Amino acid sequence: MAHPLSGAAPGVIASVIARGGLPSNPLDMLSISGAVAARSPFSAVERLLTDRRLPKLKDLPAPIFILGHWRSGTTHLYNIMCKSDAFSYVPPVATGLPWDLFGLARIFRPLLERALPDHRYIDNIPVNPDSPQEDEIAIANMSELSFYHAIYFPRAFDDLLNRGLFFDGCKPREIRRWGERFTYLMRRLSTLQEHKPLLIKNPVYTARAAMLQQIFPNAKFVHIHRNPYDVFVSMQNFYKKLLAEFALQGYAHVDIDETIFAVYERMMFALERDLAEIPPERLVELRYDELDADPLGAVEAVYDGLEIPGFSYAQPKFDAYLKSIQSFEKNKFQYSEETANRVEARLRYFIDKWGYERPGAASSGAASSNTSSSGAPAGSPTSQAGSTFANGAASPRVN
């Protein structure tokens, strides 16, 4: 399990390599393919024994999706809310072994937990055996359409990124197949954790709110946003760290800054469009600075806005978790006047929409220290994808 793709299905590996090329180091290919081959018989037996026990999609309780661009505070909110024990979520073992949750993952769980890193690769947030994770690495092991395939195979970075985020160039059957794998994972996670309502955090889904609502007509959503200046400088670190850790090919050609701008614009315009179709009682929008300043108050606002029961019961657990991370050190980044000007040139619409300002002494033009946690294009493929996979959506408006 030296690389996350060690938990993939054989067909996924073959499909992604056909599009993105072989790993530069033959030993990486040998290691990944060896793990996949060794796992595959056990994965097949597990499916035969457990698939009949999985709930039907329509029988799952209404899930809650935390949306927001990477580095906007989605992880902080997710970590707090999962302490309530009221939700099914994505544990670390499920990201690496989504096909093997009820078999190999249980057998080898002690070994896998000892192998967990002390903290996430992109920041200092601790990783524990019960730390909730986003499901995108699991999806990358189940589908050829994933954001992470661009990180793993950067030789075809732009192609794999746009397919994995926006389904660009994908045939309807490919999108339906992604939907089948996504919902299969949700059904497995629900079964693994006593059929509690799913609480899922994945920034990729920020571009797919309409599609999620079609798949889960009663789903609820939290959107958290952060100052785009902070997001940009933190995303530069995000891509550099992920590529250095997981890329199986050279990535010097990847234009990280343009990727950040292009994805942010397209993703957030898609979200703006999609949120207009979500009923106000199923949507809460939150600012990162509100979560940072008063996390307990922000979580209570989410509970109240979405009519989630049990806040008073869970409050002591939230308090205990928040006290445990008081000493957490956020990443610190410097950015220049030039960087701030570039952010304003590309992301001014969202800066103005949410009422953000340039951090620090904007009028002086001096570089400021930045502490980070982490007109719309027509005919977005995301909206086409939603209608491809599911039938019928609720109608409504924004919160």
Descriptive notes:
By secondary structure, the protein is of the alpha/beta class. The protein has helices spanning 10-20, 26-50, 74-82, 92-96, 104-107, 109-114, 136-140, 147-152, 157-166, 172-192, 209-215, 228-246, 256-275, 288-293, 295-306, 311-324, 337-353, 381-389; strands at residues 64-67, 199-201, 220-225, 283-287, 331-335, 368-372. The strands form 2 sheets. Strands 2-1-3-4 form a 4-stranded parallel sheet. Strands 5-6 form a two-stranded antiparallel sheet. The N and C termini lie far apart (43 Å).
Mean pLDDT over the full residue set: 87
What is the alpha-carbon Rg in Å?
20 Å
Order of helices and strands: HHEHHHHHHHHEHEHHEHHHEHEH
Based on the structure, what is the oligomeric state of the protein chains?
single chain
The first-to-last residue Cα distance is 43 Å
Task: Categorize the overall geometry.
Answer: globular
Number of separate helices: 18
Q: How many individual β-strands?
A: 6
User: Structural class of the helix and strand makeup?
Assistant: alpha/beta
